[in-house]
């Protein structure tokens, strides 16, 4: 029987992509060893034997000699651990300021130690670990930190090998406690193989005829965010990639069927589509951003009210706010709806629909394009939208070489892309998507690398970085667009590092003033 902490660690590991049975068993064994069975979340500095108990593992602790180390050890046992932490970790691992060594002491299941590691883990997971290092000792964060540490520090070829993985974590080969690591692996391997722990259940509303453990589709995610009420269901009102004035729509819009009436005007509760950490709650657009275990940012805009705060951990289905139409001009600037946008760990926009549906790509001969009826110029709707996404994903453009817009309207430019595809595949060039063209589209999509399947074709064709969007907004004359682009940029790891460096430079005096040298343009006399 698994404990609550073990179940949480298994879920976070699986969500992070640690899914192979031997690797998952090894991960659980190594983390269990490092944390005393997930019970130890913070370094205690209680070394009860001698100074050699410390110096045998941390040579730098002897920097002031054995007597100083022994005095610090006894002081820690008496309730004053900071001097011992300074001897062990001061002046290294990014600990440059007085007090850093104890402030950034070992925390979490895999003891995160040193200011550098806290900064790296915080950037990767969207946590303010530098400002609040105690977050690393919370079980919900400790499990995500453990998955990050594993994937960052344990080489791929060591992840199924107990000794090699332990050596990567411990820094010694063989690692300390190898027998315990091997025993824990021997316990976890059969449990994962036989007890259904390879795939922890997804906390999602059950759907009729759904296969067991099937990943959720976008429709299911949408119903998690807006659960059906009195037989009224949510529906999409705007697709990702549709042309909106001068730019493509950056997310998917939806609300309850019925337009601007009934439930939509009652500010219904909006729920989280994922488990993760809230990285933003507020702003002029009423935004909540949630970073999942893989680093994707799930962003819900235009909320009337918000029920979560930055740094809070949420589970799938937790209430995060209420539907609204909030914008820079106030709470009623837009029609009542949910705007859901999604970014990969680099800050690049993805299609929420493609992200959630990626695991449901057809297999065993089922055709991607089979859902398309015969399509031709003048047709509109979701089938055209899917066709356009497929064409853009395959690199097809209009006759002028411009990428298509997934606007759900089969116009001349879509027809040009279809004819180009037909011409390239030796098909009848008529611009109509019939059975032969559908089969060819399916074959072409199947030949695409699987790793790219989570990225919406439109996103690949129009891929721009958050910095590019910030610079473009700065050149424009729309203050609200600039504020949005700036917020997006500062939420990326690069943006956070840029902010930190800017703040550091802002408080540093001019080098010439520090050294007493002459001002620029003057000569010494």
Task: Give a brief outline of the structure.
The chain is of the alpha+beta class. It is built from 20 helices and 13 strands. It has helices at residues 4-15, 21-34, 52-55, 66-77, 82-89, 100-103, 115-125, 139-153, 162-170, 178-194, 218-225, 352-357, 382-393, 412-424, 435-446, 457-461, 466-475, 479-490, 493-506, 511-515, and strands spanning 234-238, 243-244, 247-248, 252-256, 269-271, 276-282, 287-291, 297-301, 305-306, 313-314, 319-322, 338-343, 349-350.
List the helices and strands and how they pair.
Elements lengths: L3 H12 L5 H14 L17 H4 L10 H12 L4 H8 L10 H4 L11 H11 L13 H15 L8 H9 L7 H17 L23 H8 L8 E5 L4 E2 L2 E2 L3 E5 L12 E3 L4 E7 L4 E5 L5 E5 L3 E2 L6 E2 L4 E4 L15 E6 L5 E2 L1 H6 L24 H12 L18 H13 L10 H12 L10 H5 L4 H10 L3 H12 L2 H14 L4 H5 L10
Antiparallel strand pairs: 1-4, 2-3, 4-12, 5-11, 6-7, 6-10, 7-8, 8-12, 9-11, 12-13
Helix pairs in contact: 1-8, 2-10, 4-5, 17-18
Describe the structure.
The chain is an alpha+beta fold. The chain folds into 4 domains: 4-194, Orthogonal Bundle (Lysozyme); 218-356, Glucose Permease (Domain IIA); 361-449, Orthogonal Bundle (Muramoyl-pentapeptide Carboxypeptidase, domain 1); 466-515, no CATH class. It has helices at 4-15, 21-34, 52-55, 66-77, 82-89, 100-103, 115-125, 139-153, 162-170, 178-194, 218-225, 352-357, 382-393, 412-424, 435-446, 457-461, 466-475, 479-490, 493-506, 511-515, and strands at residues 234-238, 243-244, 247-248, 252-256, 269-271, 276-282, 287-291, 297-301, 305-306, 313-314, 319-322, 338-343, 349-350. The strands form 3 sheets. Strands 1, 4, 6, 7, 8, 10, 12 and 13 form an 8-stranded antiparallel sheet that branches. Strands 5-11-9 form a 3-stranded antiparallel sheet, with no helix packed on it. Strands 2-3 form a two-stranded antiparallel ribbon. α2 (21-34) packs across α10 (178-194) and α17 runs antiparallel to α18 (479-490). The longest helix has 17 residues, at 178-194. The protein is elongated.
